[in-house]
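Entry 14. Two folds queued back to back today. First construct below, sequence then structure tokens.
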Amino acid sequence: MTGFVVLAPCTDAADRHRFEQVAAAFARRDRSTEATRHERGASLSCFRPPSVAALGPVPWRDERLSVVAHGRLDRRDVLRRELARAGTTGQADSDIELIAAAYRAWGVEAPLHLHGDFSFVVWDGRSGELFAARDRVGAKALFLGQRSGSLALATEPNPIVELPGFGRAVNEGFCAEYLADAMTSTTETVFADVQRLPRGHALHRRADGSLRTWRYWDFDLHAPAPAGSPEDLAEELAGRTEQAVARCLRGARTAPPVSGGAAAPELTSCCGWGCSYPSR
């Protein structure tokens, strides 16, 4: 699987050494390649199998920002036009470069302009601030832990509990709710030291260590129903489905998993129309 882990602050030599050990261990577990960077005040690592296409150079960095990301962006052409209108210069080719450009253009409002399945972390080495976000529907996970002034983030909880200052203490209340199929929390996990960032949420850690999380997007349950006949609405839905699948495929070969539900034939046929290779 692909993923990342981030620790901020991370300036002690022993902490950096332990961070490297944790990142390398999880890369070996999945036979992934791993890349780690120690920036001013933070450490960032990405790992992914060789068979998985990268979002771009990871961890990505320039003279100010360092970025790690998991997933993919959709509507890239729309985003590029919005960035151009915002006055952003330079060519952003990969998804991770687009995320960095969006943060430079809009700061903590960047996720409002992003579409797709993603989680990412941006570290600003100049200001000492950290920003992270998870996609609108929660397709990609993002976990966090706070202990003794440190903030750790990762795409799964296990790397966090292996980092300095964190532990494997069990969250018994969460486990009881899970076993009873009566879960009430959207943020707790099986580990007491690890929380889950909910879907459609962002996180901002200031240089003074203060942390803020907020919901940047939610479903509009009060939106008026679209006008039109059932036939016209069905045709519009089919067209939007084709467009959505085509954006996700980007012309690549695909092998869509199907559940046997009512939507499976429609999505499978869209995969055939949306790429230059036959579906299988």
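Second construct, same run, same settings:
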Amino acid sequence: MNSGMKIVGTFLWLLLGGIETAIIWFSIGIILLATIIGFRPAKNCFKIAFYLLNPIDKKITIKKKTRPLLNLVALFILQDGSSTPYSSTTGFIEDLAVLFHGIWSLTFGLILTQIHILFGLILSLTLVGIPLARIHFDMASVAWTPFSTEVTNKSKEKV
């Protein structure tokens, strides 16, 4: 993609939902900084917010597929200390991580997913907005598990 098209694409993205969603992710990162255990998740929220300011020619991927809600349910069902059926991790720290993922999914994850789906549906009504809507739909899946994401350029270089 040439630089002129990148500039136009970035401008359209920022105008049609990029700035708003970046501000929301950044605000959630600041909220998480207010807690002791929220420093690492806040770092990922900031990383995603900066990605949302210029997603053209970048790719965001989920490194590890997780099922936070199923793990949260399994955490409370299994009382004998065995590992959850959806992950191979055991121990107190891993259980806290599962609990944090579940809390994220039920609060911020649900809100962010709805916001990205709404922006994606609105943008998909126009022919010009379809590529931008695809970014929002990708971000809707990232909103469920933002703690295992990686941002890379299209040339596979880590950002």
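Quick look at the second one. The radius of gyration is 17 Å. The longest strand covers residues 58-62.
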